[in-house]
Amino acid sequence: MAGVYISFPFCAQKCTYCNFASGVFPRELARRYLRALRSELQGYTWGSRPETLYLGGGTPGDLETDEVERVLALVPGAPWKEATIEAAPGSITPEKAEAWRRLGINRVSLGVQSFVPSEIARTGRKHRAETVEREVDVLRASGIDNFNIDLIAGLPGQTPVSWAESLDWIERLQAPHVSVYMLEVDEDSRLGREILRHGARYGASEVPPEDAIADLYETAASRLRELGLNRYEISNFARPGRESLHNLKYWRLEPYTGFGADAHSFDGGVRSKNVETAAEYVARFERGESPREEETPADTLGERFFVGLRLAEGIRPAPEERRRFEAPIRRFVEQGLLAADGETLRLTERGILLSNEVFQEFVSI
User: Which is it for strands 147-153 and 3-8: parallel, antiparallel or unpaired?
Assistant: First the structure.
């Protein structure tokens, strides 16, 4: 069954590492955005009842609960099998958590990134480790015991010792799901731009080198495995039964529909996306135009390798897929980047660290 993604690209502050189309915008724009979002949802023809729902951003956890209720009321299928909302530490109250649970939200993704004060400060965040602990207790008390903790490997000033401190907190909180992302360096974030220009702002000069970041990631994978959190996708670790059902739809090429700015959709054969910025999304709505920016046929053969190999379960290529990708499959197996287990192909430990190089081969053929 299909999944639904709803974008709310508004934040209380723009984190230095963030390369998403989100940010701090005027309240008036947020009000107009929510009106446009509700209009898009109301105008959609639901072919089936959604199984999963994901409220992402941005920081939709900052929304007043009555606004969340007005949006969720337009999505059929409640109670959904899984409904996630992204939240920033320091914003969750008992009243808000109780309201989320009442509205059908049963999973919360917390953008923690680090539990170390000096690292948190340089990202632009303001929480403390104790804040996260307190709010995890609030979620559990409300009946929401399924939550994710985001961590970033490679933040400015991060060391093996400070990284171990963050991982210790994962054990202390008994987190059922953890996402570990290696710092992305590109022009779409303030920190990335500063690194590329060899500057020092935002702690750019203290970002660990690539090989050190890879070591931090491998340390996390090992420690999380010891804690009972299995790596089921390159960046995602979970206790058995706590994998993200919604995100699995992306990696298994199952259908999903996106609403809001920069939201993507996939119906099994065609990929589409809405305009990127909140301002253009609102402008389109107010002009009576569709927010849809482009539609392209999906290359499901190539994409199955690109997204499916992210999963620890790997993929079982069909005969036509094996014929099309015979050369790169053979080469990567010989290089130790792919492992062939009967009919199943999986990334090796080394292949995970070089996954972008592997994926590129399959999307370019």
Answer: unpaired
Longest CA–CA span in the chain (Å) reads 57
DSSP run (H or E) holding 295: strand 292-297
Domain count, the chain: 2
Q: At what angle do helices 300-308 and 355-363 cross, to 10 degrees?
A: 170
Q: Is residue 181 within 8 Å of residue 153, measured between CB atoms?
A: yes
What CATH number should be reported for the domain holding residue 147? 3.20.20.70
39 and 179 part of one domain: yes
Contact, 127 vs 113, CB < 8 A? no
277-296 pLDDT per residue, tens: 999 999 999 999 999 998 99
> 155 with 241, same domain?
yes
Q: What is the pTM of this model?
A: 0.94
Pairing mode, strands 230-233 and 236-238: antiparallel
Tens of pLDDT along 214-252?
A: 999 999 999 999 999 999 999 999 999 999 999 999 999
Residue 221 sits in which domain range? 3-251
Position 288 in a domain = no
Residues pairing with 7 in the sheet: 56
